[in-house]
């Protein structure tokens, strides 16, 4: 089964769970005065779950005929052979983003950002650290200055233990 | 109308707002040139900046400037590198890149800038004429008609998605609508589908979603396939931009192209879901058919008409896409959907009342479109050789920065680190969806329209004590029938074409 039909299958399953939540778990919570309304908080989700499951089934069963395969272009990515692309680098960068999200509060914006930019470039193969680290540091300070001082959005620049 | 124009002129000419146009255009050009960041991502990054300005007029002027700048920047990278940042400028690279290879990069950029300027300006004039007309009709609409109109808009977006793609596009639209129901709705005041998580109490943030749907997958694709940015390879001609002048004959050749494509592009842009991409391809095809035999041979090898047509059409279409946004409050494209989100965040409700309640916002945006186009022509064009230096930044530095800006865009809007995890999660999902050829713009449009769709639906249900509004209001019924026809038409036509093909094969 092709990837797009797997996705349709997951989507149909998701619509079923969503529909179950809308049909069976939401209405008991409704206060009595709202039960006299013709429209409940669950009305629209109920309609969506039915429509979603139907459309998902159309894609899953391939009822809509595909007209000819598109010729693959050099810049597009064919998911069937991920091995020939830099998939490892992409996963590494995504992991770096997750680490960044988790570290942003504890070690502060400035340290986290310098580390993220350095790590990101390193994952991509940059080895000239004497250029990379100063560039990352200067860029971080500029962004911090613009966002916090000019736009007035507080970024928590320093690690938690320095502030508390 | 004259009075409105004067109000707009007064507001837009104010030095601060003028500064915003210039600033927006330059920032937009800079970032738009980078592979991986299209107008949608740039506008999403700039929204926190615009919201901090506080003044909705200045904010919208800034975002419109960024939008134009980004399109112009995208054309520049198509011409110089054959690396179109967005789908709307793919047709530009057909003839723009061959011209650059022949050493006429400067001339190609000038033609692109003049065509964009003319397309945008003529589009703005048409917008000025048609928007008030449409909004006076729209004033008669009730929530039932709005509900039906949004259904038509959403199904049109799916219907224009292309052959064999209608089901997938509809699926994405419904996914967007489902995601919009997460959190506290305006009408009911009770949290829905939050799974007990505090961070979902107010629903998903549309900026995070926009970043996850567009900027992040594009960046991941750039990492995975370096050929995508075409950087540093033999395609690079950014170093030699000379001779920005065009001759009188060339100007005479492209003038009729500009005239036709401005009008055609504008009307395609007004249609929901069609937008700049279809306008530019159609413009290219139409002009090739209209050209003389020897001109036709030139197309694809560096024809000035082939460059001018998609550039004009795509800018006119961008202006056209403002019509449904400003008059009905219904976005027809991903970019206008993001602008709508920004407007709602600024307490401005776009729709037919906008012209009556806040004429200064409406007209100032139109005036700033002219000014933005002018800025691009007289300020950016001479600066292009310098701005193009940004393309020389090595990939190892560029990609971490693109990712960092994506993270910042999601973070500073909410100031919540959980938002970043949501961003990465949805980014991965969006990348997988793109692998499987699912269109992502319908998802975002569905998400942004979801709340409004449900509000209008619930209001009509309450007024008519049930679904009676569908049958009792002829216009609502008509619009809903239109929506069904729009969705079913492509498969019906495909079926008929197949039947006919079979008939031929059988010797029928």
How does the overall form of chain B come out from the CA principal axes?
A: globular
User: What is the rounded Rg of chain B?
Assistant: 23 Å
Biggest sheet statistics of chain A: none
Number of strands of chain A: 0
Shape of chain A: flat
Model description:
The complex is a heterodimer of chains A (164) and B (508). By secondary structure, chain A is mainly α. Chain A has two domains: 3-65; 87-163, no CATH class. In chain A, 63% of the residues lie in helices and 0% in strands. The longest helix of chain A has 23 residues, at 3-25. Chain A is flat, with a radius of gyration of 25 Å. The mean pLDDT of chain A is 84. Chain B has one domain. Chain B has 22 helices and two strands. Chain B has helices at residues 2-13, 15-33, 39-53, 56-81, 90-101, 105-138, 143-159, 166-180, 206-224, 248-270, 275-290, 293-298, 304-320, 322-328, 334-345, 354-357, 359-387, 395-414, 418-435, 441-464, 469-472, 474-505; strands spanning 183-184, 191-192. Chain B has a two-stranded antiparallel sheet. At the A-B interface, helix 1, helix 2, helix 3, helix 4 and helix 5 of A face helix 3, helix 8, helix 9, helix 18 and helix 19 of B.
